[in-house]
Amino acid sequence: MFDEYSVDKIITFGQKLWDGPFLKLRGNNLSLTGPGTLDGQGAWYWPQGQAVTKPVFFKLNRVNNSTLSGFTLKNSPFRTFSVGNSNYTTFTRLTLNSTAGNSVAKNTDGFDLSRNDHITIKGNHIYNQDDYDSDTVTGLLVKDNVIINSDNGIRIKTITGLTGLVNDIAYIDNKVVNVKNAIVMHSDYNRTKGGYSGIPDSMAKITNIKIHGLSGSAKNLYDIVANPDAVAD
């Protein structure tokens, strides 16, 4: 049995330089539905550049057996969803729209995932300037999503100097439209600098990755800088 909650109107968040999040969710058997809109007012933050601290929009930590569906998140100042330590949770029929920041929005990741198991991301529309999926996960299904005007469509990045596991990931029947890089895999992400180091020395294992039915348009199909000692299949 689910504890049910809804976003049924437009909610606009204030403007303040801090690390956020605007919203935090934790618990078991939760259902959060639409059809409302959450507006992070990202246009106030984006022109200030990457040197200032911007809030994460929606953080999920230790969320299990839950579903988020049918609402809109627009104008994210920074990462849209940050999901950690969560299991058997589904994101479906969501709209993530940061198009107001064309050319100036940075690090507005659609889904930033870490230390999760059996997360499903299905049937969402993401209009975004940065990437769609990143960091360390196992048992992830990403299916029937559309990613539009993004730097990256599908991205797996692992952090330099650390071990970990990215395993059993399936990307099925997704579409990218006007993205820079359709598929990205990097073993050289420097968390301190917030970018790639050029030295793929992360020892996080990347195994059993499946991409099937990816369609659409991208400037580059691949951007891969991987540690051959840590990547297989």
From TrEMBL:
Record GO terms (molecular function): polygalacturonase activity
GO biological process, one term: cell wall organization
Gene3D superfamilies (UniProt xref): Single-stranded right-handed beta-helix, Pectin lyase-like
Keyword field: Cell wall biogenesis/degradation, Disulfide bond, Glycosidase, Hydrolase, Repeat, Signal
GO cellular component, one term: extracellular region
Pfam families: Glyco_hydro_28
InterPro entries: Glyco_hydro_28, Glycosyl_hydrlase_28, PbH1, Pectin_lyas_fold, Pectin_lyase_fold/virulence
Reactions performed catalytically: (1,4-alpha-D-galacturonosyl)n+m + H2O = (1,4-alpha-D-galacturonosyl)n + (1,4-alpha-D-galacturonosyl)m
Listed EC numbers: 3.2.1.15
Family: Belongs to the glycosyl hydrolase 28 family.
Name this protein carries in UniProt: endo-polygalacturonase
Organism: Phytophthora rubi
Lineage: Eukaryota, Sar, Stramenopiles, Oomycota, Peronosporomycetes
